[in-house]
Give the backbone structure.
Amino acid sequence: MTMTEAKMMCMCFLLVQLSITFFVFMCCVGNGNARITSAFVRSEFPSVDIPIDHEVFAVPKGYNAPQQVHITQGDYDGKAVIISWVTTDEPGTSKVQYGTSDNAYDYAVEGTTTNYTFYKYQSGYIHHCLVDGLEFDTKYYYKIGTGDSSREFWFQTPPKIDPDAPYVFGIIGDLGQTYNSLSTLEHYMHSGGQTILFVGDLSYADRYQYNDVGVRWDTWGQFIEQSAAYQPWIWSAGNHEIEYMPYMGEVVPFKSYLYRFPTPYEASKSSSPLWYAIRRASAHIIVLSSYSPFVTYTPQWLWLAEEFKRVDREKTPWLIVLMHVPIYNSNEAHFMEGESMRAAFESWFILNKVDVVFAGHVHAYERSYRISNIHYCVSSGDPYPVPDKSAPIYLTVGDGGNQEGLAGRFRDPQPDYSAFREASYGHSTLEIKNRTHAFYHWNRNDDGKQVPTDSFVLYNQYWASNEGSWTQKKHHLGDLFGWTAPY
C-alpha cells in the first residue's frame, strides 16, 4: 500500500467515525436527551413596582382628559374594536370619532360609561365604545374627549380572514408594573408585533391593600397605554385578577378586571367574558379561564366543545389556545396546578390538532416538545407524557416582569418533555408566514437589552402535520449547523 493510499484510507475512516458520531448525537437530540436548562443568571433591575410619580404613569394634561386608553378586538373576525378609556373629573362624552385620514374623522359612534367601587376606592368613569363595520387591513385614526383635552390615536385592522395571511402576534404574561415590566414592554414595542396575546396577571394590584388596589389599576392602565392604545391586546384572566378580599368586604371575583377590560365574548357565543374566541388574519384564538369551572357539563366546557366545531382550518389554519395556568410545567413554582385542566381538555387539543398553547403563571420561560399524557388514568395506562406528533407545543411565558420576582427553581432532572427553560424576564413573538409555517422567538431582557434566546420554526398541524414531531432539534444546534429548529 502506498503512502497516498494509506492517507486516503485514514481520512475515510475518520469521516466514517465523524458520521457515526453525528448520527448518534442527532438521535440523542431527537429523543429528547439534549434538553436544556439555561444557566443564565439575571442581574438587572430589582422586582419592585415603579413609583407612582414616575413619568410612565403620568396622566395627560387638561380637564377631564381621557387616560388609560386601550383597545381590544370587538368581534369574531377582526372588523371591530372596543376602545376603552377613563375620565376622572366628570363622565363627559363616550363618543369616538374616527376615519381613515389623520385629523379627518368622518364617522362617530357613542359608547357607554360605568364605574365601580373597591373598598373605599371610587374608580374614574370607565368608557367602552364598540367601533364596528371596519374595513380589513386599514389604518384608522380615532379621537376621544372634547376640546383642548381631546386625544388622538390610531390602529391598524388585520388582513381579511385568509389561510395565507401573514401576521405577527406578541405574547406577554404576568406583566405587572416594575422596571422589568417596562423593559419587557419597550422591547416588545420594537418587535414588529401587531397584536398582543396576553396570558393573564395584569397589574398585580391585588398585592396592595385598601384604596391602593384601585390606584394601582389606574397606574397600570396608564402604563400600557403606550402600546394598548394603538393595537389590540387580547385578554385572558389570571389569579391576580380574582381579587377575593373578604377582609375588605370585596368578595366578587374579577371585579376590577371585568369593569376595565371588556372582551368580545358574545361574538363567539360564550356566556362569560372570561372565556371566548376570535379569528384574526390566519389564526383562530381560543381564550380559556383557568379560574372558572371547566369540568364536564360546566358552561366553559360546553362552550369549548362547540367552539372547536366552529374552527375551519381551511380559513384559519393556525389554532392557538391561551390560558393562565400551564398544563405542562417543570418549575417548582405552581408545579402540577394545571393538571385538572389537562385532564379535562388535553385530549380535545390533540383531537383538534391545536398548534400551540400559551400560558403564564410561572415566572419563567419554558418550551415543551410535542407530547401528551392522554392515556393516563388512576387505575391504568402510561403515567408519563409520551411523544405525540398530534399534540401542541406548550409555551410558558409568565416572565413579563412583575414584582413577585422570577421562579428560579426548576425541577431536577429536567423532564423528557421539556425542551428549553430559563428563569428570565422577556416576551415572545409568533410570526405567521403562511398556512404551513410560522417563526417563534423568545427574547430575554438581558440587563435592559433584548436578547433573542429561543427560536424555532413552527409547522402547522393541519397543513404540514408531517413536518413536526418530537424528533425535531432545538435552535442551539441550528445555530451550530446553520438551520433553525422546526416543530
